[in-house]
Design a protein that fits this description.
The structure is a homodimer. Chain A is about 45% helix and about 10% strand. The first copy, chain A, is α/β, with parallel strands linked by helices and about 475 residues long. Chain A has two domains: about 160 residues, Aspartate Aminotransferase, domain 1, CATH 3.90.1150.170; about 250 residues, Type I PLP-dependent aspartate aminotransferase-like (Major domain) (Aspartate Aminotransferase, domain 2, 3-Layer(aba) Sandwich).
Chain lengths: ~475, ~475
């Protein structure tokens, strides 16, 4: 494609994006398509000859866009609501053009050094200590996997060299996380060959926070059974309810027992950017590692997850492996990104984060997070004030767990699931659910950069409308 | 940022990219900066207030761009030369704007289904059988890690459930790969807890291809020692020389021994798109899994790696884990991407690949690959015809391994390393090296979409100029 053509189609794409971001509400938030619909609309074979870009973009608009679920929609309240800010999109455009593979310092000095700068800025914004160095990965799942691998390496059991198969000398390694911890912890253990048996689920209290006394007891029991405790994962902002584990107490246990403390702050780490919420990270300054996702609540286009650790040397020892074809004259004087993980090539992700931190500034980011928390609180107040609804968990941040509980008799789980499917089918908003104490629970997650009070208010109206429709139908 | 502002800055960024892609040769290919230079030019603290986008873009041009190593430069001949095509960049722009997390079908039906369509098209272009289903990951390192995890799962040893620590019943698991295999194979074993000891390096022949007879012998020896062979990784297009392991012979061994055969075709899989090169994948139709990187030699912006497997069910069994908050009504009728790996969130990567396959078509892609092979052959011919230079490996595809070997006495390794550093310091081109049979070897890798005969010719001239300068200096 000639530069002139790229310019023309690039402008066309930018205009399309500008229009899209100006009115995401023109689209249903949850794609209103059947499984297989898009696939059936596209040819089963690739074209022999090239096709005009204009036609490709036309098909994109006609077939692809209707099958998109719009994370940019201000009434996307499912999972953790996340969204890409404009400066982040501009950063991704430039990164895509550079197409750097930042495996070594020399293959992209800009990526390597901007990663150090942007992650250090973010560390300061979150109030983490200076000893915490950072690494960018794609996702928190991958960051957590690497953190647990570092914890394993820190045992000095020659797992890197000798592995774990064919060894009668290795006790059962055990990792502790609350029953509310994210599934990525279990997946990390599966991938790392530690298996589901190595996960000890620590009970949570009535507010879904890890019970630190139970943690201590479980570790003690494991030691007496001859197992080897090696890591605790605490969560700051669990996926179901955004509950915050008592990290200071957990850190006490980890220090006493000499266990690696990893903190999953994928969602709530960003909250600490607001000074009045910095307390959510209390105790995290004592962690060995902590993962947080700017692509969750810091308006950074997916993917960009940051792993911080005071022991990056251990992580490096676990993964560095330099074949001859990757040796460089400067290798001892620089940081080579691929030394810190499974991935060799790494995208130039730091650029978008650097642009976002500058464009919004500390105050701008804090204001957005503050407003999201206010909106969640507002919604929670409506729930609390209504006889037909109830809160099912505290609301420390921007997610509300609730359900309909009308006066009439009936199966509340079935009612609430039906209600969720009914509001989602309107395309006006998108909610997801969880289960708390075995109860089907609706979640309203505020986090989208475009979400305003009107959207939260409309969600409340719509939920009440659908509830009354369902109640009328019996 | 208002839509109008996004439009304005978006156009500015597109214009900058268009200008950049029109003249990447205006920049030194290898960034001419010292370690720490960029970092020292940027403020150590993040801004309190937001900054104007115009200023951020100005700093981008002034500080960031000079620290970029330009993978788009047509004289980037290092590692595997790769480059982003214009339709791929347009696709990335749209993906960045959608900001989808395609963990479940419903969170991005378009991403899920376009992934199936684009990967099936690519499968057809490479001539792989219909039973091969595909999954997109970020990198081949991650794809290979997942393939080896699937091979481990296929053993039915309850590694997912019980892990490998604290078990006296597990023999030493062993994986076989040629001594020329990529370091990602060893990293995968380290991550998976199998360890370096589980890697058996199979000798290669004089042309750097796995010795299949040695493979059979090593497996036999391991069995007699009580170890458990479980996987063989064959490489189609090794990193050092692009040598191609004898996959039909390796597949014979794997079938006889009932081992999982994974093929690393990260680079050379794309060659099969050219009908006359399809033979590079001979035997791969018998593999259990195969990884290939459209982001290497298919003009796709990094990252997009495709893992194909006839046993995706085993991969799914190894990694699927659905917590309550990710259950959906349609889950049994659709494919949920996060079931196939460690990563939960997944970028909408398929869009750029779909656009590229359509824009170039089968013929366009084949023509580019064909031309790259022609240019490498041309350069190899010059090397062979010159008394001062020698080829150090066959040139089956688009990479030439060679070195200067002038008449004068001296340390050839030191001479060639000096030569490489001298040409790289000019900023006119970028070469990397490897070692073959212990000998320092220069590599000229053709793969950039803008590389033409003139660039290869200029590389040859510059190498000869620098050789004669160095020879004159003694």
């Amino acid at each position: 494609m000639s530069p002139e053509e790229f310019r023309r189609f690039g402008h066309e794409v930018v205009d399309w994006i500008a229009g899209y971001l100006a009115r995401p509400e023109d689209y249903p938030v949850l794609a209103q398509v059947e499984p297989g619909q898009l696939r059936s609309q596209l040819p089963p074979n690739p074209p022999e000859g090239g096709e005009p870009m204009a036609e490709i973009l036309e098909d994109f608009r006609q077939y692809v866009v209707p099958a998109v679920t719009h994370w940019n929609h201000p009434s996307f309240f499912a999972y953790f609501a996340t969204s890409a800010s404009a400066p982040g999109i501009l950063g991704e455009m430039l990164s895509a053009a550079f197409d750097a593979k930042a495996m070594l310092w020399r293959t992209s000095p800009a990526s390597t050094e901007l990663e150090e700068v942007a992650l250090d800025w973010l560390r300061q914004l979150m109030g983490l200590p200076e000893e915490f160095g950072g690494v960018i990965y794609d996702t928190a799942s991958v960051g957590t996997m690497h953190a647990v691998a570092a914890a394993r390496e820190a045992l000095d059991l020659r797992v890197r060299e000798d592995g774990m198969s064919g060894r009668a000398d290795l006790p059962l390694l055990r990792l502790y996380a609350s029953e509310q911890a994210h599934s990525s912890v279990e997946k990390a253990l599966i991938a790392l060959g530690l298996g589901q048996r190595s996960l000890v689920k620590v009970p949570a209290d009535a507010e879904f926070r890890m019970d630190a006394a139970a943690l201590a007891r479980l570790i003690d029991e494991d030691r007496r059974a001859g197992h080897l405790p090696f890591c605790v994962v605490a969560t700051v902002g669990t996926t179901s309810t955004t509950s915050i584990d008592p990290v200071p107490l957990v850190a006490d246990v980890c220090e006493r027992e000499r266990l690696w403390l990893h903190v999953d702050a994928a969602y709530a780490g960003s909250a600490a950017v607001a000074p009045e919420l910095r307390h959510v990270l209390d105790g995290c300054e004592r962690a060995d590692s902590l993962v947080t996702n700017p692509h969750k609540w810091l308006f950074t286009p997916f993917d960009l997850s940051a792993l911080y650790s005071r022991r990056l040397d251990v992580l490096r020892r676990a993964f560095a492996l330099t074949p001859e074809y990757l040796r460089t004259p400067e290798q001892d004087a620089v940081r080579n990104g691929s030394d810190y993980g499974v991935q060799l090539g790494r995208r130039f992700r730091a650029l978008k984060l650097w642009m976002i931190l500058r464009y919004f500034g500390h105050e701008g980011l804090a204001a957005l997070i503050r407003e999201h928390c206010r909106l969640a609180r507002l919604f929670a107040d409506w729930v609390e004030a209504s006889p037909d609804w109830e809160l099912l968990a505290p609301v420390p941040l921007s997610v509300v767990c609730f359900r309909a509980r009308p006066e009439v008799e009936g199966d509340l789980d079935a009612l609430n699931e039906r209600l969720m499917n009914a509001v989602n089918a309107t395309g006006e908003l998108f909610l997801s659910h969880t289960k708390l104490h075995g109860v089907f629970t609706l979640r309203l997650a505020v986090g989208n950069i475009r979400t305003a009070e009107a959207h939260v208010r409309r969600a409340w109206e719509l939920l009440n409308e659908k509830l009354s429709e369902i109640s009328d139908e019996g």
